[in-house]
Amino acid sequence: MATETVSVSTRMYIDGKWVDALDGGTLKIENPANESIIAEVAYGGRADAERAIEAAARAFPAWRSVSAYERAKVLKKTADLMRDRADRIARTLTLEQGKPLGEARAEVMHAADTFEWFAEEGKRTYGRMIPPANMAKRHFAIKHPVGVVATITPWNFPAALPSRKIAPALAVGCTVVARPADQTPLTLLEMFECLIEAGAPAGVANLVMGQAVPIADAFFANPAVRKISFTGSTAVGKELIKRSADQVKRLSLELGGHAPLIVFPDADCEQVAQAAVIGKFRNNGQVCIAPSRFYVHDKIAGNFTEAVVEATKALKVGDGLEPGVQVGPMFEARALAKTSALVDDARSKGAKVLTGGGRSNRFAQGYWFEPTVIREVSSSMRIMTEEPFAPVMPLLDFGKIDEVIAAANNTPYGLAAYVFTNDISVAIRMAEGLEAGVIGINDPVPATPQCPFGGMKESGMGRELGVEGLEAYLETKYVSLGIR
Ligand code: NAP
Hints:
Blueprint: E1 12-14, E2 17-19, E3 26-30, E4 37-42, H1 46-65, H2 68-84, H3 86-97, H4 101-121, E5 128-130, E6 137-145, E7 148-152, H5 160-171, E8 175-179, H6 186-197, E9 205-207, H7 212-221, E10 225-231, H8 234-244, E11 250-254, E12 259-263, H9 269-281, E13 291-297, H10 301-313, H11 333-348, E14 352-355, E15 372-375, H12 382-385, E16 392-398, H13 401-409, E17 413-414, E18 416-420, H14 424-433, E19 438-441, E20 456-457, E21 460-461, H15 466-471, E22 474-482
Parallel strand pairs: 7-8, 7-10, 8-9, 10-11, 12-13, 12-18, 13-16, 15-16, 18-19
Antiparallel strand pairs: 1-2, 3-4, 5-6, 6-22, 11-21, 14-15, 17-20
Helix pairs in contact: 1-7, 2-4, 2-6, 3-4, 3-6, 4-5, 9-10
């Protein structure tokens, strides 16, 4: 087994300096493909977060006063550096997270594009003049950066998800304390190296690593933190909503999903089957917007099933650093155990496994699950109600459009939905009827920096990306001016 390592900084970045945890703690970072240790990073807690918050609060007045054009230069340069180093950052990402190198590189480019897009959009935080009813007054609505922003992000997209928070926050003049997930800090460390080299002043962007709850305690306790932007599970999101009450802390929440993918009989069955397999097994299904319930019209269900099973069997599974690999390991032992439990539950309630169905024994070490397709799925199965976050494709049939809209919406989640049809009336009825914040019609990969991304119902509050993603870091102030 080859042990790979990374050469990025492994310390926290606080107030313009690379620092160790105050208590000297460290955490080992593992490669999920073979369980080898690739790095050991500084790992602290509440006291480190407090230092970072203080630095961000000190830096806020000056950063806010810099022109949007000057801030944009730093963000644009960050994007350029990330692109220049895309191969290196992608390798780090694959090593700590497991996804194939091609996917990792695409994610790094998406994160760079996000920095560039917000660099430009930050120049357009327009207010407005509002016509007065009383001509002795003038009314204005102006924009104000929210203040110090704390970000908490998960392991599944360690480049893309922080970029959707850090770039817009910095663009409008906020300062940031970022906390990556325990097991994937290295990609964010790589991104911070770019930010620093691009000229982010001391205290403007800080990175802390350490236990989630004590760090969140610091974020909630300190009134200098005006906003917490969180991406993660719905369960933790709900906890944060409760905790935000004390100081009416602003929250943006990007939470879990259970996306339906719906195939109408006029769609090109072969082509959609390929798209469905790519969409499902990207990052091993560990994607918040991954399709996780596949509703196929009964006229084409047979052909579609054959095509997806064949395409799933053809996927190349292996270490993400190997050329041509399409599916890497799952992220951790816990994810593997949960996936096995979901498939076992479905099987015990009558589901038929068409391919895969269990842990892979092709590899001596690492967290491997065979890409799986199941049929004869019913609503009593856990896989239909819990967010699976797993490489499992459950197939269901439907007959009528109203029936499939009702089935698709029958979940507390409302993050993403996918529809495949060439019938414009069906496309519009689905876009209007589905309860999801992101809808891909004949598009299995809809996320892009300039368009709003986020969930309805229990999938979140607020939106990232697009103009909405910039607005999330701004307060609106109304100014009424009496004149003579
Ligand atoms: P998670 O357990 O909620 O963790 C997410 C992040 O929050 C991690 O950094 C985690 O730290 C931290 N955390 C855990 N408990 C916390 C607490 N009590 N207070 C504050 N922070 C806490 O989620 P996960 O299972 O790792 O990530 C997958 C979830 O994220 C899925 O539900 C997925 O759908 C969702 N997600 C949503 C989007 C979106 O845009 N809507 C995108 C990607 C993922 P540790 O690293 O220490 O665990």
